[in-house]
Each structure stands twice: as C-alpha cells, then as structure tokens.
Specification:
Length: about 300
C-alpha cells in the first residue's frame, strides 16, 4: 500500500510512470518515451511498454536507443527472433551501442552460438572497458551459465524512470570525464551551432538549438549515430575514397559534417546566408579544435 509516510519502490515507480506519461502526452515527439517504456517494462506492464516503444519508433525510426528498448521488451515477451532483428538494427544504426551488443550476445548464447556471443561481448567491452557487467557476462558464459538478461544501461538504472532524478543528474557538476565546454571554446556559435558526438551518438561537446531557441542537442545526436559509417560505406561504393566532409543546403540553414577522428562526428549548423565555402572553412577550424581536444582526453 502506498502512503505518504511509507512508499515502497513500486509506488515511486508508478509516480514516475504517471509523470513521464504526462510529459509524453504534452510533447509526443519527446525522447521521454525511452524512459517511460523502460519504466513500464520494469513494472511488468509489457503491453503498455510495447505500445510506447512502437509509437516512439514511428516518430524516431533511426534512433538506436528506440530499437534497443523495443528489443528488450520483445525479449521479455520471449519473442527472441524479433528482438534479435531490433538489436541488429540498433547496431547497424550505431555500431558502438553497448546495450544492443550485449543483447545480441545474450540471444546468441541462448541458441548455443558461444563464439558469436563472446565476440559481441568483446565488442561491447572495447566500447565500455569499465563496465563490470560485461566482464561478469563473459565469466558466466565461460562457466556455462547464461549471462544476465539485457536491461537498461547500468548508469541509467536508477534514473531512467525518474524525471526528477534525471533532472538532478543532468544538473550535477561532474568531477571527472569530458569537459564539453572546452571543446570549442572561443569559436563562434559553440553553444548553439556546433555538435561533437562519438560513434554511439553520445554528446562530447557543443550544443544545438532550433530556430525557436529550443535545445535539440540530444535529439540530433541520437539521429547522427552511425552516420559516419554510412557516409564511409557510400563513398566506398561510389569509388570516392575516404570521405572528409559533407555539406548540405536547406531552406532555413546550411550544415556541414566532418569526422575529426574515426570514432567521432562533427556537425556544424549555420544560417542560410552563410556560403558553403565559408561554412567549410569554419568546419575545418572546428574539426582541428575537436581533434586536438579528443587527443588530450
């Protein structure tokens, strides 16, 4: 029973589900569906979680995290074949997505393909070498035991369903890790028109805002995951050699893509009035700054 004085964890989870549902109803395009779907999954409300994930995928079909969420729900429902397809799609979009790599490892183990299971866990470990769950899963497999069923990333397990917890986490100062503010320090538009991400779509530096001034950094970063690999594949198929940059003109603005390192992607966005040549020069400066910064990490 949920009371004001004694609130079991399941009561807190239900409060979070209600709050997240309200947020999603207010903004159906929001990525909050990821946290809501995971909260419903943890609560055991798989049909509701499935609907949330599917609706989210309709709006964000190229979002690796959405396919990962859908795969976890399908796996809970023992629909392993479709779960495999979703995790496979997530890895195609974002090759360094550790959640999807661990999910595929779990399913490979279930069908007895230990070699593929270990290969996917090894790939996940290369991306997240400090994740103890990966080493634990490898050790369990080598003993013949099934690795733990896939779940949301450990870093998100305590805050994935909690709007207040997620907010406080985002605002908390970080004592270590990447100093995003320094990446493009001194460069024009560093806080609204430059974005540096890694291969999994995680923001390393910079920020983006739409024409209304709304921060769209995380949303754009999620969509850009895997773009570098697709660009390289396309350039190879066309016989163009290694790609160094891509420019595009839009009705409201121009963009330029570059990759400072093999595992990072840089996006530069400017108003429509900036010529592509000048945009390319600005992007080159930003690329050099990003590369130097990444080499120091």
């Amino acid at each position: 029973m949920c009371t004001a004085r004694a609130r079991p964890p399941e009561c807190s989870l239900m409060d979070d589900i209600r709050a997240l549902s309200a947020q999603l109803a207010q903004d159906p395009q929001s990525l909050v569906f990821l946290r809501l779907g995971e909260a419903l999954r943890r609560k055991g409300q798989l049909e509701a979680a499935l609907r949330v994930a599917m609706n989210g995928l309709e709006r964000h079909p190229h979002l690796a995290d959405a396919h990962d969420l859908y795969a976890r729900i399908l796996t809970d429902k023992h629909d392993y074949e479709r779960g495999f397809d979703e995790w496979d799609m997530a890895v195609r979009i974002a090759p360094h997505h550790t959640g999807a790599l661990k999910g595929l490892a779990f399913l490979y183990f279930k069908v007895g393909d230990i070699e593929q299971a270990e290969a996917h866990l090894a790939a996940a470990k290369r991306v997240e070498p400090d994740d103890p769950s990966i080493e634990q899963a490898i050790a369990m497999m080598r003993k013949g035991a099934s690795p733990p069923e896939p779940s949301a990333a450990a870093a998100d397990s305590s805050t994935a369903a909690s709007p207040t917890a997620a907010s406080s986490t985002a605002q908390a100062p970080q004592g270590s890790g990447l100093d995003e503010a320094r990446v493009f320090a001194g460069l024009e538009g560093a806080n609204e028109g430059l974005l540096l991400i890694d291969g999994a779509g995680r923001v390393l530096g910079g920020a983006l805002k739409d024409r209304a001034g709304t921060d769209v950094t995380d949303t754009v970063a999620a969509y850009l995951a895997g773009v570098s690999q697709e660009a390289a594949r396309t350039a190879k198929l066309l016989g163009l050699g290694a790609w160094t940059g891509l420019s595009a003109e839009g009705q409201q603005g121009n963009v330029h893509l570059a990759h400072p390192t093999s595992g990072a992607l840089l996006l530069v966005v400017r108003e429509r009035g900036m010529p592509l040549g000048r945009l390319a020069i600005l992007a080159q400066r930003a690329t050099l700054m990003a590369r130097r910064w990444l080499e120091q990490q």
